[in-house]
Design brief:
The protein has a domain at 61-191: Class II aldolase/adducin N-terminal domain (L-fuculose-1-phosphate Aldolase, 3-Layer(aba) Sandwich), CATH 3.40.225.10. Helices cover 32% and strands 16% of the residues. The protein has five helices and eight strands. It starts with 12 loop residues before the first strand and ends in a 12-residue tail after the last helix. One of its GO terms (cellular component) is cytosol.
């Protein structure tokens, strides 16, 4: 996330869920990413109780657990404070389909209402907003991307930051043309069949 410019310091958090073994791995609270070692990662049971690790889990563990409970297709969560997506979040604006790559999230990137970070209220707001989207803006906060694995969740976070930048720059020049819901449905369908034969990766 640091190399891609999606966050700074220890900002944001990452988790993945091994549904077969019923363990959730999540980044710890307050440790900068370059300093992280495998032993620093916190392993939790699905109810949030500790299985292994000496550190406190991310302060946002609540919404990670909420997302895993909400949708069984989610096995990874990436939360960033990426600059352009967070700019839209601070404007309390969704990111529209200004570019077809918004399809990594869905027909748009919806906005979850503001709540203090690390609270049950924020977890509830995100879970209620996610529906069938793969990314959600958090008002005045950042962005959450989800996926079937860490690679797909990270790719979504990265592509949505690109779309947010494109939207920002287009609006600096004029009024961007927004793709229709019908076109986005076609794009999302094509994404599902993109990549090498036998794989359903969308990138």
């Amino acid at each position: 996330m640091l190399k891609a410019g999606l966050t700074t310091g220890s900002g944001g958090n990452i988790s993945c869920f091994n549904r077969e073994k019923q363990y959730i791995a999540i980044t710890p609270s307050g440790i900068e990413y370059p300093r992280l070692e495998p032993r620093d990662i916190v392993i939790l049971h699905p109810d949030g109780t500790l299985f292994e690790g000496e550190n406190r889990p991310s302060s946002e563990v609540g919404f990670h657990l909420s997302l895993y409970n909400r949708r069984r297709d989610i096995n990874a969560v990436v939360h960033t404070h990426s600059t352009y997506a967070t700019t839209f979040a601070c404007l309390n604006r969704e990111i529209p389909a200004v570019h077809y790559l918004v399809g990594f999230a869905g027909k748009k990137v919806p906005l979850a209402p503001y709540a203090t970070y690390g609270t049950p209220e924020l977890a509830l707001n995100i879970a209620k907003t996610i529906e069938n989207y793969n990314a959600v803006l958090l008002a005045n906060h950042g962005v959450v991307a989800v996926g079937k694995d860490l690679t797909s969740a990270f790719n979504t976070a990265e592509e949505i930051e690109l779309v947010a930048r494109i939207c920002y720059q287009a609006e600096c020049i004029g009024k961007p043309v927004i793709l229709s819901d019908e076109e986005m449905e076609r794009v999302i369908e094509k994404f599902a069949d993109y990549g090498p034969r036998g794989h359903n990766d969308s990138k």
